User: Fold this.
Amino acid sequence: MKTFDERLAAYFAENELAEDMQQAIRRCLGQPNSTSTEIIADVDQETQSYNYDVNFESILDMFENVSHDVNCFNQLCGYYGTYTLFVTEELEGIAVEQL
Assistant:
């Protein structure tokens, strides 16, 4: 079974992402550190919605329209962005959107 870093590197290579985009995605994802149940339990259903997938790469694919524009990606998923991206300990993906 591939590790998080191996799968992320394969995703970058497959999508031919530039180094600055790779760094932005790494910064946004952080490291796997919680279960999906723990993350979803913290979602405030009144002000947030979430998308979940058993493969974190599928969550990144949601942003393929902006995956070659680091500024646009950072506006959506950065510190002040609309989305917060998570990778669980099981390498599942969750994108939480501020409504």
